[in-house]
Amino acid sequence: MNELIIEVINLEGLMRTFIVIFILWVMVLIAVFCDMWTGLKKAKALHEKVDSQGMRRTFSKASDYYSVMFMLLLLDVIGNVFPWYAFPYISILGIVGVIYIELKSMFENLKAKRSAAANIPDAIRQIVQCKDAGKAAEILQTLKGIADDTGSVQSPIPTDFRE
């Protein structure tokens, strides 16, 4: 009886599946923390306030990912009963999807961090601190030049202030 159970369960395949799953789950955790890191860097570059709400979102997102991944793991364990199902294919597909989402989010954070719009809060601070209108106009012209050169940012100068 025990031999039949061992043959049906395929303990070697099950152990290999759990090792692969563990490695993939760690990769997801690393991807989530890398996304959090780029989000913090973006917030710092844009002079946004970093609060616990963002951290809560990160851990909530990780919790959601791991809930889905656990369900995929259950499907892989069931699939391990079949001799032709020797690897956690379903979990791998799900985890590749999660890592893709996190990678896309990281690129969005990096793009926002490096955009010309990230310089606007500094420029506004400089304009407010100007002692005369000539210096403020000079800063506005610099901003207009940045917007024209990149083509990606519209001029932040209101139409009634343009020359």
Order of helices and strands: HHHHHH
Average the pLDDT over all residues and give the rounded result. 78
**Distance between termini?**
91 Å
The count of strands amounts to 0
Strand percentage lies at under 5%
Class by SSE composition: mainly alpha
| Rg, alpha carbons | 26 Å
Net shape: rod-shaped
| Secondary structure tally, helices | 6
- Unreliably modeled segments: 150-163
Range of helix content:
over 70%
Largest sheet: none
List keywords for this structure.
6 helices; 163 residues; rod-shaped; mainly alpha
Write a concise synopsis of the structure shown:
By secondary structure, this protein is mainly α. Helices cover 77% and strands 0% of the residues.
Question: Would you write up a description of this structure?
Answer:
- The protein has 163 residues and is mostly helical.
- The protein contains six helices and no strands.
- It has helices at 2-9, 11-45, 52-79, 89-114, 120-129, 133-150.
- Helix 2 (11-45) runs antiparallel to helix 3, helix 3 packs antiparallel against helix 4 and helix 5 (120-129) runs antiparallel to helix 6.
- The longest helix has 35 residues, at 11-45.
- The radius of gyration is 26 Å and the shape is rod-shaped.
- The protein starts with a helix and ends in a 13-residue tail after the last helix.
- Mean pLDDT is 78; it is low at 150-163.
